[in-house]
Every structure is written in structure tokens, then in C-alpha cells.
């Protein structure tokens, strides 16, 4: 990946957080949650009063999840590249270690 694509993937995570928070908090009114002491009629009235806003907030939250895909994909790609780099280091280290042991064994016989 080039730097431009990596920056787009990283910024998609920031945009996801902003859109998800906007949908969750100001639009859907999920923060603060309804009081536990509220009656069923009060909660039903809240959903009726803010029905359109709640729906718009939920739609914004669902749409914002599409932005997490490039962010997560970039993270997975970086993780797997790190795993591959770790195993390459592991392989090289033990190859050199085995070669030095074999070389020492040959020197001991001579």
C-alpha cells in the first residue's frame, strides 16, 4: 500500500467515530439513557416524540460502520505483515544458529 491509501484508511476510522457518535448521541438521544425508574408509558412517549431523530441516528450509525472496513483492513494488513516479519526473523535466526552449531561440530572433529 502507498502512503495515501494508508492515510485514507486511518482517517476512515476517525470519520467512523465522529459519524457514529453523532448518530448515537445528538440524533438518537441514546445518551443519557432513559431512567430506570421511568414507566413504560414515558419511554414509549420518548420514542414517539423523537421517532424520526432516532431513525436518522440509527441510519447514520449503520452507514458509519462501512467506514470501519478500510480502517480494520489496514490494521489487519499491518498485523499480518508484522507476523510475517516476525517469522522471517525467527527463521533467519535459527538458520544461522543451526549453521553455527554445525560449523562448530565440524571444527571439533578436525
Describe the structure in your own words.
- Helix content is 83%, strand content 0%.
- It is built from 4 helices and no strands.
- Helix 1 runs antiparallel to helix 3 and helix 1 (3-27) crosses helix 4 (68-109).
How far the N terminus sits from the C terminus, by CA atoms, comes to: 52 Å
Shape category? elongated
Regions with little confidence, pLDDT below 50 for 5+ residues: none
Count of individual domains: 1
The secondary-structure class comes to mainly alpha
Number of strands: 0
Helix content: over 70%
Count of helix runs: 4
| Approximate strand percentage | under 5%
The secondary-structure element order is: HHHH
SSE topology sketch:
Elements: H1 3-27, H2 40-49, H3 51-64, H4 68-109
Helix pairs in contact: 1-3, 1-4
Summarize the structure.
The protein is mainly α. It contains four helices and no strands. It is elongated.
Summary keywords:
mainly alpha
